[in-house]
Amino acid sequence: MKIIAFTGMPFSGKTEAVKIAKDMGFQVIRMGDAVWNEVANRGLELTDENVGSVADSMRKDYGYDIWAKRTMDTIKSMEGEDCIVIDGVRNSEEIDFFRKKLGDDFLLIAVDASVEIRRKRAMQRNRKDDSKNPSDVEERDRRELRWGMGPVIASADVVIENDNTLKKFHKKVHDFLSKFC
After folding, report:
1. Three-state SS for 33?
2. The pTM is what?
3. Which of 12, 104, 142, 161 is deepest in the core (most CB within 10 A)?
4. Phi first, then psi: what are they for 5, rounded to 5°?
């Protein structure tokens, strides 16, 4: 079984890359779903602030690889799949955990887009935990960087640029996934 993990800064295009994988028939595990479930289990509203706070506190209380460990449980339940895509790796501890458990069957892909493009996307996207406040978007970037996103992106096996048209990005992701899996 091959495992591909997508990473990148908020609004870089990770969700779009994962959508392409899903459309190609890959099984997808979104690490953020584990966080969203924890937020719901605590009876909290699904907001950017609550999601960030719960994700942060769980990392501090249980280790920065807590969400990777919870994701691994889901991966184990998908035995028999040829290729699984993970959405949302955010720190080096998660990468280390996956590389230790999965070895050469793990591949990290960073989706990269300029700050200007990401901020424009932030104002257009309408996901439940998104904020339209530019200062919230900047704080989200700072939070992700505090969690270790910079070294994760730097350690990616592959970087796919997403500063052009959606059609060109789709082709890049589709072509890569077709070769790898």
Report:
1. helix
2. 0.81
3. 12
4. -110, 130
Tell me, what DSSP letter sits at residue 104? Answer: G
Nearest partner of 51 among 108, 111, 127, 124, judged by Cα = 127
What separation, in Å, do the N-terminal and C-terminal C-alpha atoms of the chain show?
9
Question: Does residue 162 sit in helix, strand or coil?
Answer: coil
In the predicted structure, residue 111 carries a pLDDT above the cut 80: yes
Rounded mean pLDDT, 113-139: 75
Closest CA to 14 of 37, 30, 25, 26: 30
Q: Which CATH superfamily is domain 2-180 in?
A: P-loop containing nucleotide triphosphate hydrolases (3.40.50.300)
State the Cα–Cα distance between residues 33 and 112, nearest whole angstrom. 22
Residue with tokens 């506190």: 57
Strands 2-7 and 106-112: parallel
- What number is the average pLDDT over the span 74-86? 89
